[in-house]
């Protein structure tokens, strides 16, 4: 099998690192060679965070170049737009419709771009947008956006059975948050 590429992008503190850890665990358990590379911006100050997850029969590099991502999972709409140039022509962006103002918007030196979802679609990009924040809150915590988005991502991994995703969640999520996270995953998949 050829190497497949998934980018997980977001803003610091949204849980993207747990999402990449869980996805890496899932893919390893499914028999793939996996490379995960985390790139932190000012993650602790709400800056951009990106993680590359590459998997296949044999993966030599953890880095995804422009135009190589099969899928981009975005925790925030502006981050989806910021990283869309990395998407393959037939790839998909799974994005939360939530918006988080970056520092230039907060300080008043810039405005948050309007109609990002429509603008991406106008460029021919396959956008799978959802209100992951509301679903996470329905599951019991706004912090479960990451599992909602992984639930949606699982729909694109038809070759990996649902029970394997559940096993990865159980292996990576602390026991006290397990039921909440399983519920969030199921809402994202639904």
Question: Might you state the CATH topology name?
Answer: Pyruvate-ferredoxin Oxidoreductase, domain 3
Order of helices and strands: EHEEEHEHHEHHHH
Helix content, binned percent:
25-40%
Portion in beta strands: 15-25%
Distance between the amino and carboxyl termini: 29 Å
CATH architecture: 3-Layer(aba) Sandwich
Silhouette? globular
Indicate the low-confidence ranges by residue numbers: none
Strand order of the largest sheet: 2-3-1-4-5-6
Number of helices: 8
Structural class, please?
A: alpha/beta
CATH level-1 class: Alpha Beta
**Name given to the CATH homologous superfamily:** Pyruvate-ferredoxin oxidoreductase, PFOR, domain III
Q: What is the number of beta strands?
A: 6
The averaged pLDDT comes out at 92
């Amino acid at each position: 099998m050829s190497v497949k590429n998934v980018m997980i992008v977001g803003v610091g503190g949204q849980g993207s690192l747990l999402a990449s850890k869980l996805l890496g665990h899932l893919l390893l358990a499914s028999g793939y060679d996996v490379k995960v590379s985390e790139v932190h911006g000012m993650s602790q100050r709400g800056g951009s965070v990106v993680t590359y997850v590459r998997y296949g029969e044999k993966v030599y590099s953890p880095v995804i170049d422009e135009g190589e991502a099969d899928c981009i999972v975005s925790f925030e709409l502006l981050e989806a737009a910021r990283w869309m140039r990395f998407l393959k022509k037939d790839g998909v962006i799974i994005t939360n419709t939530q918006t988080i103002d970056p520092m230039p918007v907060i300080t008043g030196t810039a405005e948050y771009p309007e109609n990002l979802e429509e603008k991406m679609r106008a460029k021919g990009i396959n956008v799978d947008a959802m209100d992951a924040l509301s679903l996470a809150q329905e599951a019991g915590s706004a912090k479960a956006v990451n599992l909602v988005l992984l639930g949606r991502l699982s729909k694109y991994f038809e070759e990996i059975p649902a029970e394997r995703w559940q096993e990865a969640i159980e292996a990576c999520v602390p026991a006290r948050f397990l039921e909440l996270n399983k519920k969030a995953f199921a809402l994202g998949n639904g």
